[in-house]
Amino acid sequence: MNDLDQLVSTATAEFDAAPTPAELENAKARFLGKGGRVTDLLKSLAALPPDEKKRRGAEINQVKARIEAALQARRDHLADAELQAQLHAESLDVTLPGRRRGTGGLHPVSRTLERIEAIFGSMGFDVADGPEIETDWMNFTALNSPKNHPARSMQDTFYVDLKDAEGAWLNLRTHTSPMQVRYAMAHASQHRGADPMPEIRVIAPGRTYRVDSDATHSPMFHQCEGLWIGENVSFKDLKVVFADFVRQFFETADFDMRFRPSFFPFTEPSAEIDISFHSGPLAGRWLEVAGSGQVHPTVVRNFGLDPERYIGFAFGMGPDRLTMLRYGIDDVRLLFEGDLRFLSQFR
Ligand code: PHE
Question: Which ranges of 294-343 does DSSP label H, i.e. alpha helix?
Fold first, then answer.
C-alpha cells in the first residue's frame, strides 16, 4: 500500500469511528480542512518538477475524491441512524386497541321521568317545574295541613335557615304537591273571568326531601304530581288515566289495579293506587305506585277556585320506585350513589 492509499484508509477509519456528525466534521477538517493532510499534499506539489507535478497532482485529486466519498458515506450513515433512532422513539403501534372516549348516558331516573312526561304529555297534560325550597304555606298549609296539625308529622322535613314573608321557616319540599297549588293559582288567575275556566291538566315531576334513609327510602327522592281539575272530573277519570299510564309505562296490559282507602289531608276521599302484574318477575304482588284522591274543597278554594263548581283529582307517584320496578333494582340508594358500574348499565 503506498502512502496515498494509506491516507485514504486512515481517513476512512477515522470517519467511521466518528460517532456523531460534529465529530465527523472535526475528522473531515483533519484531512480536507485548511491545514488538513490532503491540503498539505497539494501544497507540496509546488516543489515538484512539472511532469512529476502533473502525475502526482492527478493522484492526489483521486485521493481527495475517495476521501470525500468516504466522508459522504459516513454522513449518510449517521443521518440514517439518527432518523432510525427518531422513528423508534416516536413509534406508534397502530395495532393497539384504541382509547375510547367515555360515552355519557341518561340516568335511569331521568329516563323514567322522560317516559312519564311523554306518556302524560300524549294525554294532554302540561309539564310544570317548581322550586325545591318551599314556603310553609305551599308545602303544608295550602294543602290543608295547618300548623301543629298531626298530619304534618307524616312528612318530616329539612328546614332551611331562612324565614319566608310570614315568618315561617322555609323547607325542602316534602312532596311535589305544592306544585298543585302553584300551578292551579297561576292558571286560575290567568283565566280569571273565563267561563268555564279551561281545565287544569298538569304533571309536576321533581326532587323532594324527607328525613328518611334506608334501602327503600332516600332523603332526596323524586315524585311526580298529577292534577286534573274541571267541572266534571271524577275518580273514574283518574282510574282511566292512571291505568293507561301504567299500561304504557310498563308496556303491558296484563295487570290488575286497585284503589286502597287511605288518608291525605289534601284529598277526600284518598286512596293508594296498587298494581299487580299477572306475569313476569313482579307477578302476584300488590305494588303501591301512587297516592291519590279527589282534591279537598279547602285546597280547591286555596287554588282560588270555587269548590262548588270545580272538582278533580290529584295523584303523587314515585319515579324512583317505578324505575326500580321497571329495571329490577332492589335498593333505592343505588340510584343516587353515582357508581359508574351501576349507571353504565343504563347507557
Ligand atoms: N303528596 C302525597 C305524598 O307525598 C302523595 C299524593 C299526591 C297523595 C296527590 C294524594 C294526591 O305522599
Answer: 297-303, 319-327, 340-343
